[in-house]
Amino acid sequence: MKIIIFILLLLTVILNCFCQEYYANRDDMLFTSHSRFNYIKSVKKYENIKILEGIVAWDVNEVGTQSKKIQTEDGSIGYIAIDTISIKDSEVLPYEITNNTWMHSYYIDILKSGNRETLFKYETFWRDYFHKYKEDLVYHTGDDLIWYEKADDIIEIEFKSIYSRIRDLANYNFYDIIIGRILSKKNAYIFSYFCSGILITFKENKLDKYFPVNEKNIMILYLDGDFLEVYINEYKLFTLIKTNDEIIKQYSNLMLYNNCDLSDIKLPQRTEGSTGILQINEYIQYYNEIISNNETADNIDSHESAIAQDNGEKGSLPLLLAIIGGVLLVVSGIVRVSLLLRRWQ
Fold it and tell me: How confident is the model at residue 145 (pLDDT cuts 50, 70, 90)?
């Protein structure tokens, strides 16, 4: 019987590895593509779903609607509106984060310098590599194109409780990330994420190593007044500030005409008394402990269930075999899914 208990525990671990982390938060429809033309089936509220690899697509028929490729409980694959998806057992990002658009804090330093070439300090691509790629740009070709004519757009980043698009190099590169279970500690929000799809126009950039497709990492968003600190694992990736129309306008003027006016720009402020420094190891340890404790509790429950069954009816062996058969079928159908899906919390 010890062997049976061991097998049951092993199967529990296997099933937990494949547990689904996301569900539909409302009744919706599944479509064959992001254009929402061809209807596949209805998706019911609280139905488990898996998020599949690929970029988030804008719906061409419904303004402002984004959709994501998913798989439903019965194995159907298609696209569903991104705001239909919720995370199981998760907190949500606060309105202060999700209702604002964020940009790099270094734009303020560039504006203060009054010299557009200060951008080279932060994005060396425009000085060192732009000439290699301007022939391949979508909208303009030819040697007459100057770097600052393409670098005049501020990179804007939004965070939602399920999804974010991290942009780079005047918005020509982007990485779609899908957010996992969110925990909070003070003003920090900690979650696992994976990059589900990328679009790269300019190859020379610094972000590829932080957003490998289908690989799980930890992100921390630390809200500090008008600032948002972004960490990946133990590395500080960005310091972001809230966008506003005047900064966007003056940055464009500086890039195009090498001239700007700072008189109407309200500078971002941190929370009173804040140093802007986060003890990152403390937050990662907190996240890992919470996740680990949850997994331990699940395993204890499964172990007690297995013992109870072992001490009960002798007819449990056929049930075990049936379970094994079911799991083998599940495993055979899922092994083709990426490694990340086996590692989701």
Answer: confident
Structure-block tokens of residue 330: 């599940």
CA distance 220 to 283: 8
Closest Cα partner for 218 from 185, 194, 187? 194
pLDDT of residue 260: 95
Q: How far apart, in whole angstroms, are the C-alpha atoms of residue 111 and residue 105?
A: 11
Q: 108-124: per-residue pLDDT in tens?
A: 999 999 999 999 999 99
Is the CB of residue 240 less than 8 Å from the CB of residue 103? yes
Give CA angle at 324 (322, 330), nearest 5°.
105
| Dist CA 158 CA 9 (whole Å) | 42
| Segments making up each domain of the chain, as ranges | 22-87
Distance CA 30, CA 53 (A): 16
Query: Which has the minimum average pLDDT: 189-203, 210-224, 253-267, 276-290?
Result: 276-290
Structure-token pair, residue 251? 């940055």
Inform me whether the pLDDT recorded for 129 exceeds 60.
Answer: yes
* 344 in Cβ contact with 192 (< 8 Å): yes
CA dist list (Å): 44 to 30, 34, 41, 85: 10, 19, 10, 11
CB-CB contact of 23 with 35 (8 Å): no
Q: Are strands 188-199 and 173-185 parallel, antiparallel or unpaired?
A: antiparallel
162-189 pLDDT tens trace: 999 999 988 889 999 999 999 998 889 9
Give the right CATH number for 22-87 from 3.30.980.10, 3.30.70.270, 1.10.10.10, 2.30.30.40: 2.30.30.40
With beta carbons less than 8 A apart as the criterion, state whether 155 and 119 touch.
Answer: no
